[in-house]
Amino acid sequence: MNHLFKLLCGVVAALALTQVAAAAELRERALGMFSPLPSTFPALKDNVITGEKIELGKALFFDPRMSASGVFSCNSCHNLATGGDDNMETSIGHAWQKGPRNSPTVLNAVFNEAQFWDGRAADLAEQAKGPVQAGVEMANTPANVVATLTSMPQYVAWFEEAFPEEKNPVSFDNFAKAIEAYEATLITPAPFDAWLNGDDGALTGDQLAGLELFMNKGCSACHNGVNLGGNGYFPFGLIEKPGADVLPPDDRGRFAVTKTADDSYVFRASPLRNIDQTAPYFHSGKVWDLKVAVQIMGTSQLGTEINDQQADQIVAFLTALTGKVPEVVYPVLPRETSQTPRPSGELQ
Amino acid sequence: MNHLFKLLCGVVAALALTQVAAAAELRERALGMFSPLPSTFPALKDNVITGEKIELGKALFFDPRMSASGVFSCNSCHNLATGGDDNMETSIGHAWQKGPRNSPTVLNAVFNEAQFWDGRAADLAEQAKGPVQAGVEMANTPANVVATLTSMPQYVAWFEEAFPEEKNPVSFDNFAKAIEAYEATLITPAPFDAWLNGDDGALTGDQLAGLELFMNKGCSACHNGVNLGGNGYFPFGLIEKPGADVLPPDDRGRFAVTKTADDSYVFRASPLRNIDQTAPYFHSGKVWDLKVAVQIMGTSQLGTEINDQQADQIVAFLTALTGKVPEVVYPVLPRETSQTPRPSGELQ
Question: How does the cofactor attach, per the note (chains A, B) (predicted)?
Fold first, then answer.
């Protein structure tokens, strides 16, 4: 009995060592492809992040008066209460027009190498200027934004505090910079970060199996880096084009930016953090089920069938990318004055 | 010199005493007409306020999925960032329709004796059911609201916690009760409350002069109580009807509720707390300047011309009604599931 007991102990210990070694190996492999979120805000190009700038940016982000109609703020389509997006196929904007593409999440967007589905904005400051002016979104003009801000003494004071060295702090450029600074704080550490950082208990067995599949099947060829995507461009339908509902023929993606035939139906690989909070999926927003989206990716991008069990495990892994949204105190905004341009909901 | 000095001291002392007496008299008179906000939430009829109910109500208040389109939450038209209203003439709602009347502030609304411009809802729970179903506002149905809530396990758990004794906690009635409980916390103590409570320094000289005018001119005949209004019905244009832009002939106010000829163009006296944050004014929302609104009230309701200086002082007093909005931590809402009804922006 004594011998048998020793033998059993030895087997158990060996198995445990093997498991530890396997976990260490999986983590090492994963760290070669993915990075955990940093513990501090990233530095921005030409835009020093200060507390004053963050607070101003938060006010602007939540202010519906930045739209011509007074209905939409940045937060309308990038709602911090619902995963940083709006849970619609494509957003509803000015005069009830429908936007052309699904609204991407603002959470962790600062870590994307470029913004928008086609990467046409280099950074969040450039991005912030887009929807404000888009006729189907906020339908405003830079001049009207500046006039609106200048009409409210509290905003002028906040701009002076956020841009203390500048002669004319209230500008459309600084509006965008303040929003960029605020958005850089919207970082959501997730169980996957804890696991990458060494916490073996942060992921379940199914999530670990999903991670292995995610790497072995080739998902991580496009969805890698700190945001598991957002850092490269790939044709949607690399192996097999999905149906016209999912990939509408009239939206050729990055082709509109580069005018290069090679970029036809090329899109930025979606960043996958908080993906289970941001249905529906793809630029068309036509797929509501994450599992279905995973399986479509298998056939269209990898030329492989992802079976039900595998898809469930990959989805389990993807839920480990859902992080903690930073606590946001809802702002109290400056009051209008007689100089404030009136809201206009008219179709322009 | 000694005598003169004594005399002067006596005069100064007498003047000071007279001022103190005048201040005490003014406060006593004011307390006969107005009440300071209480330091605790008011009790609600058939709706015990608990922390769980408040938190649930806050989530519902901010959740755009309570509207058919997924665009509008309670907070869209009663925005806590902008005085508890939306700063529009009349709100823009479902399918870009315009609402018939200016959106009133939700702040301190719990102290109104009835809700809406025509008082057609007895309390905030009844009120909360209105806009959700109104075709021009959120265009939803009670059945769809309940289906939406039931589809999200986190909401079901929150309802169970907020209504622990009930067999079917997820109901349209409880949806409204939770919102009512949350709204009962939206109370904004203002300098005028501090002054009513005995702080002589809380109001400026102009504000005190404005308060006296407000009482002497007769404004307080309708605008009295804790909310300086919200507790009685009066014909708009009692003495002289304002122009058709301000008082559109096709909106006969409380007549639609009571079908009594006497109630033609009768409206609930506007509660005046935070009034300088909630332009534009009147049920038509046609007047953007508070001073102009004060002067219109003089001619239409009191038959008296309120001159520029008087109007400025009354406006100064009204700004002393602007209070501190309670700190609101923006909620993180439950995620949808495959059972969640899809948003629909179609015109019904």
Answer: Binds 2 heme groups.
- Do B114 and B165 have their domain in common? yes
A226 & A102 share domain: no
A225: domain CATH number is 1.10.760.10
Cβ distance of B289 and A338 shorter than 8 Å = yes
A137 is catalytic: yes
Task: State pLDDT tens for residues B172-230.
Answer: 999 999 999 999 999 999 999 999 999 999 999 999 999 999 999 999 999 999 999 99
Q: Where are the beta strands (DSSP E) in chain A?
A: 233-235, 266-268
pTM assigned to the model = 0.94
Question: Which residue matches tokens 């941001």?
Answer: A278
Predicted complex ipTM:
0.94
In tens, the pLDDT along B136-160 reads: 999 999 999 999 999 999 999 999 9
Residue tagged active-site, from A55, A137, A180, A183 = A137
Distances (CA, A) of A186 to A37, A108, A223: 11, 6, 20
* Structural domains in chain A (count): 2
Q: Does B277 contact A at CB distance below 8 Å?
A: yes
* Token pair listed for B105: 């502030």
Average pLDDT for chain A: 94
Task: Quote the CA–CA distance of B174 and B164 in Å, as a whole number.
Answer: 12
Please tell me the distance from the alpha carbon of residue B212 to that of residue B215, in angstroms, as a whole number: 5
The upper half-sphere exposure of residue B225, i.e. CA atoms within 13 Å in the direction of its Cβ, equals 17
Q: B287 - beta bridge partners?
A: B281
> Cβ of B292 under 8 Å from any chain A Cβ?
no
pLDDT at A1 over 70: no
Q: Among all residues of chain B, which has the CA nearest to that of A324?
A: B332
CA gap A29, A23 in Å, rounded: 10
pLDDT over 70 for what percent of chain A?
100
- Same-domain status, B199 and B180: no
Domain that holds residue A64: 51-184
Q: Which of residues 42-71 of B touch A (CB under 8 A)?
A: 62-65, 69-71
* pLDDT tens digits, one per residue of A261-286: 899 899 999 999 999 999 999 999 99
- What phi, psi does B136 have (nearest 5°)? -90, -5
Q: In one letter, which amino acid is A109?
A: A
**Main-chain phi, psi angles of B261, to 5 degrees:** -55, -35
Among A96, A103, A275, A278, which would you mutate to test the B interface (most chain B Cβ atoms within 10 Å of its Cβ)? Answer: A96
Residues A287 and A194 in one domain: yes
Report which of A203, A197, A222, A233 is spatially closest to residue A302, judged by C-alpha positions: A222
Question: Is residue B338 a part of any domain in this protein?
Answer: no
Which residues, in sequence order, are CB contacts of B172 under 8 Å at separation 6+? B129, B142, B145, B146
The CA distance from A311 to the nearest CA of chain B, in Å, is: 16
CB of B345 within 8 A of CB of A92?
A: yes
